[in-house]
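Section 5.1 Outputs to date
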Amino acid sequence: MHAWLCTNPTGVEALTWTELPTPTPKAGEVLIEIKAASLNFPDLLIVQNKYQMKPPLPFVPGSEYAGTVVAVGEGVKHLQVGQNVACLSGTGGFGTHTIAPAALCMPLPPGFPAVDAAAFIMIYATSHHALVDRAQLKAGETVLVLGAAGGVGTAAIQIAKALGARVIAAASSDEKCALCTSIGADATINYSKENLREAIKTLTDGKGPDVIYDPVGGDFAEPAFRSIAWRGRYLVVGFASGPIPALPFNLALLKGASIVGVFWGEFAKREPKANAAMMAELAQWYGQGKIKPVIDRTMPMAQLPQAYAHMGSRAVIGKLVMVN
C-alpha cells in the first residue's frame, strides 16, 4: 500500500508519498481499500499541529473516506468483505488502504457512489446535529448560514430546507452565492460587497434570523450576532477564517439569545445511539434526493499537495475529493 505520511507536522510540504506494509486488522477493526477521500479543514490543521486531536507520529492524514472492506478483524459482525462503507476516523484516508474501527464505518446502501460517500459524514452529521439537535430548528423559521458555499455550509442549506426553514446564505463571491441559490437558498448575501448587518436587516424586515449557523468565526461573528432575532440561537460550528471571535455577553442578554456550541464528534462518542439514528435518517434523506454533497472537483490521490493549495486559496465550493 501507499499513503501520504506525516512524520513531522510542520505543514503540507512535510507530507511524503510512502510505500508501507499493508496492515492486518485487529479485533474490532477492518481493512479498507480506499476509493475516495475528502479534504476537510481539520485535515489542514492536523498536519500543522494546530488541531485539537494530535495523533502519535508518524500518521497518515485524511479524516473522511469511502471504500471497500477487504479484511475484517475478530469480532466484527456487521461488516463483511466486499461491503462498501464510509468512515470518519480522523486519520488514515489519504492512501490506498487503511485500518478503521468497524464501529465507525457506515455501511453504504446500493447506489451510493464513493465520491459522495467520502464527502458525506462530516458535513451532514455536523449540520444535522447543529440545526436539529442544538438549535431545535422549526419549519417557518429563518436560518442565516455563514460560509454558505463551503462543505458544512452547503449541507446546512440543504438540511434547513428539508426541515421547512427559510435560508439566507452568506458567501464571499457572486459565484458562491449562485451555487447556494441553486441548492435551495431563498436569499443570498455577498459579504465581500454588501454590509452584512444592513443586508440581514433588509432580508428579514428588521426581525433578524432565528438561527445563525457559523462555521467561519472571525470578523463576521459580532455583526451577525448583533442582527439575531429575539430568542435566536447562534451556532458556534468552527473557525475556518482563523481568528476565534469574542462576543460581548450583553448582546445575548438584550436579545434573549443563546450562544450554542456544536461539537458533533463529541456528541457521537457520548450519545452513540442518538448519533446512529441521525446517520440513518441522513442516509434515508440522501436516498430520497433531499440532500446531496456539492463536489467542487475530484483530484487524483497523488495530487494531494495541489489539493491542499486549492483549499487554502478559499476557492473551493462544496467539497474537494481525492480519488484512487
